[in-house]
Amino acid sequence: MKKNILRYCVITILLLKATQISAQTFNNKTSEKTFRENYILLRPNANIGLLNNNVISSFGIRTLLKAGSNKAYGMEISRFRNHKTNKIFYSAGIIIEQKLFNWFNMSAGTVGYFNFGDLSENVVGFTSNLGWEPNSNKRFSPFITYRSDCIFTSKIQFIHSLNIGLNIKL
Questions:
Q1: How far apart are CA 33 and CA 39, in angstroms?
Q2: Which H, E and C letters describe the chain, residue by residue?
Q3: pLDDT of 109-154, one tens digit each?
Q4: Which of 80, 86, 141, 163 has its CA 20 to 30 Å from the CA of residue 121?
Q5: Which domains does the chain carry?
Q6: Is there a contact between 74 and 95 (Cβ–Cβ < 8 Å)?
Q7: Are 130 and 146 contacting, i.e. CB atoms less than 8 angstroms apart?
Q8: Where does the signal peptide begin and end (predicted)?
Q9: Angle at 40 (CA atoms; ends 126, 36), nearest 5 degrees
Q10: What is the rounded end-to-end Cα distance, in angstroms, of the chain?
Q11: How many other C-beta atoms are found inside a 10 Å radius of the C-beta of residue 70?
């Protein structure tokens, strides 16, 4: 699984970087400001939260391409663990993100959940984050958010969690 995650990250970075270079070439924007605003953002993160009064932990990574100074879009993969049943499930999806007031981070996305629940179903859902991210031009910076996952099974289920991570600008 670790090799697959690493492959996913490398392929995503290469595709996003190629898209970024193509867009810059097409728009003929070669100023220093453009290069500083348009970069790839890696966001490794860890979560702890609740699903039906069961403790859930997860870790994952988002690979985002900046779209201007305060917006980004990309992909996310995560590995979840239900501590009561010791069951592991995964998620992968598309995320859009925006930063307001230079510190308030919010994101939303459609996500697929794999091997979820007692029946090991593959289901879809929605994820959102609201939280704090410093206004920083540094290569590394922290973030902390409230994460909510809405999972559409036969009965809609919610995961509410605290999400802590690190922004890595490439």
A1: 11
A2: CHHHHHHHHHHHHHHHHHHHHHHHHHHCCCCHHHHHHCCEEEEEEEEEEEECCEEEEEEEEEEEEECCCCEEEEEEEEEEEECCCCEEEEEEEEEEEEEECCCEEEEEEEEEEEEECCCCEEEEEEEEEEEECCCCCCCEEEEEEEEEEEEECCCCEEEEEEEEEEEEEC
A3: 999 999 998 889 999 999 999 999 998 888 999 999 999 999 999 9
A4: 163
A5: 2-169 (2.40.160.20)
A6: yes
A7: yes
A8: 1-23
A9: 130
A10: 24
A11: 16
CB 90 within 8 A of CB 113: yes
Amino acid code (one letter) for 165: G
Report yes or no: 82 and 49 within 8 Å, Cβ to Cβ: no
pLDDT in tens, 42-80: 999 999 999 999 999 999 999 999 988 889 999 999 999
